[in-house]
Write a structure and sequence with these properties.
This protein has a single domain, classed as TIM Barrel, CATH 3.20.20. About 40% of the residues lie in helices and about 15% in strands. The chain is built from 5 helices and 5 strands, in the order βαβαβαβαβα. Strand 2, helix 2 and strand 3 form a beta-alpha-beta unit. It is globular, with a radius of gyration of 14 Å. The mean pLDDT is about 90.
Amino acid sequence: MVGAREEKLINHLIKNHSKVEIVGLDQDPDGYIDFLKYRGSFYRLWDKHVTKSRVEGIHQLNGKVIVTTGTREPRTAGETSLERLQELASIGIDYVIINDPNLGIQALR
């Protein structure tokens, strides 16, 4: 699995590495539409961009939603709370990137 946002890299991966799953890392939270139609099956959203309609849209295109918790600026990527993990689960995300695996275990209970 490789995360990519640049068109040149995505096209290279498609052409030369057909078995590699590509995660769309586009900074545009609605960029999933073109990405999933033509290139991949996983799309990463930053926590602040997660909405039920985006998650449903990604799922309608047979994509999987990966959420990076926290924020890019200021740099808090991977930080979250148990309550937020539960909210994300209720929205229907598929995967989450967090810093504290114990928190993830608690959320699964």
